[in-house]
Amino acid sequence: MRAPIGDFDNAVPAAEAEHFDGPAADAVRAWTGPVPAEQLLYVDTDPEKADTAVFVENYGADLTETSANCVVVAAKRAGERTLAACLVLSRTRVDVNGAVRRQLEARKASFAPMDTAVEETGMEYGGITPFGLPADWPLLVDTAVADLPWVLVGSGRRRGKLIVPGKALAGLPNVVLLEGLGV
Fold first, then answer.
1. What is the dihedral of CA 96, 102, 105, 106, to 10 degrees?
2. C or N terminus of the chain, fewer CB within 10 Å?
3. Phi-psi region at 6: left, alpha or beta (left = phi > 0; alpha = psi -120 to 50)
4. Which parts of the sequence belong to the YbaK/aminoacyl-tRNA synthetase-associated domain (predicted)?
């Protein structure tokens, strides 16, 4: 089937995708969220073209407005560290020192080191997705992402992406929708 966004001819329901595995795949296959599971799509992509600018050049200019990046942040307060994930439009950056710090009630917030993000999520760097995150993590999602009819996010691996209705993101565990998370 043809994907609703991007230049992909190979979209399949993610729960049925042959090469889709890991924590994100487990979460998708157990999906009970606000949209039907068959609307969570998987597209196979070249891992060498996973970085945003190259990806858009190869898979469709419309993805500039419809793709989102999921990043891991570390917040500190009173000697305690909290890890969280943030999902913003790929053309924006996460407001770590403003929106994230306030939401997590942290004294300091920063991007988590790559090794930490990979180890804690069980996902590949460059493919981290809001699906299948550790159960106790807050997931901060910019309302601009959740308001999209369709959004492209990682699949947990550099190979492959998920295309989901923006409103599906509101059904993920521990989600907090924040206006202005991406600046």
1. 30
2. N
3. left
4. 47-169
Which of 173, 135, 132, 129 lies closest to 151, judged by CA? 129
| Residue of 1, 22, 14 lying closest to 152 (CA atoms) | 14
pTM: 0.96
Domains with residue ranges and CATH for the chain: 12-178 (3.90.960.10)
For range 116-136, the mean pLDDT? 97
Q: Please give the Cα distance from 145 to 165 (Å, whole number).
A: 10
Number of other CB atoms surrounding residue 119 within 10 Å: 11
Q: What is the mean pLDDT of residues 122-141?
A: 97
pLDDT of residue 28: 98
Q: What angle do CA 96, 99, 100 make, to 5 degrees?
A: 50
